[in-house]
Amino acid sequence: MAPTSTPQTPFGRVLTAMVTPFTADGALDLDGAQRLATHLVDAGNDGLIINGTTGESPTTSDTEKSDLVRAVLEAVGDRAHVIAGVGTNDTHHSVELARTAERTGAHGLLVVTPYYNKPPQEGLYRHFKAVADAAELPVMLYDIPGRSGVPIGTETLVRLAEHPRIVANKDAKGDLGRASWAIARTGLAWYSGDDMLNLPLLSVGAVGFVSVVGHVVTPELRTLVEAYVSGDVQKATEIHQKLLPVYTGMFRTQGVMTTKAALTLQGLPAGPLRSPMVECSPEEIAQLKIDLAAGGVQL
Prior knowledge:
eight-stranded parallel β-barrel
């Protein structure tokens, strides 16, 4: 049974887009995934995104995706929302992934904009609607034009918000003006998908975060959002500024690379990366240590 939620915060306030741990030989590490999920929920996450980009979903099989969701549900499903990433650039494939995630027991779906093939807005609308129609699960859209090549237009978001199961949007568009209008017009629960903009997006109506840096600073993110919601903007701003080196350092290169490096430094499950991702270089790890230390992260 999924944890309690409200229409305003359907997946809670602080979620981490979890990496997928692998064993030394590159196989899926389900025990490690359960230990990492437990660590992240113990740290204060309301939910976890499984099989997102930070989870290396482009290089995991459909069977591995289901096994991973099942394992994480077993570990933390009674305490946190377990959201399955099912977005691809093939509507039929995404529909099948959504149905499988529902059968596996996922609490919700994350659906990214179809990437590479650059569909028009009508194509985006039909894609997202088809996935939302396919399973009886709440859906979080994921708008990240820097990766997908196309933004979800505000008018398209307004249309999609009419669907009873499309309840949230993960915003990595990097445009506070467009976010302001879309939040006002759609009524969707808005989640920051860009850690550097966590606080700014709260100021225009976001309710929480889907974070990468949550792997290492979940308690700080929770304190930040709770301070803001309670009206202590000064405290939230102080935390935001304290975390700037972490926000910067974790994205000097591709986020899953630095995240797995940081988890390894902390003795937490991570393992190697699947090609075409590669491990951070010694120089990158040295810089990461400096960045994390500057943000107060203990290694």
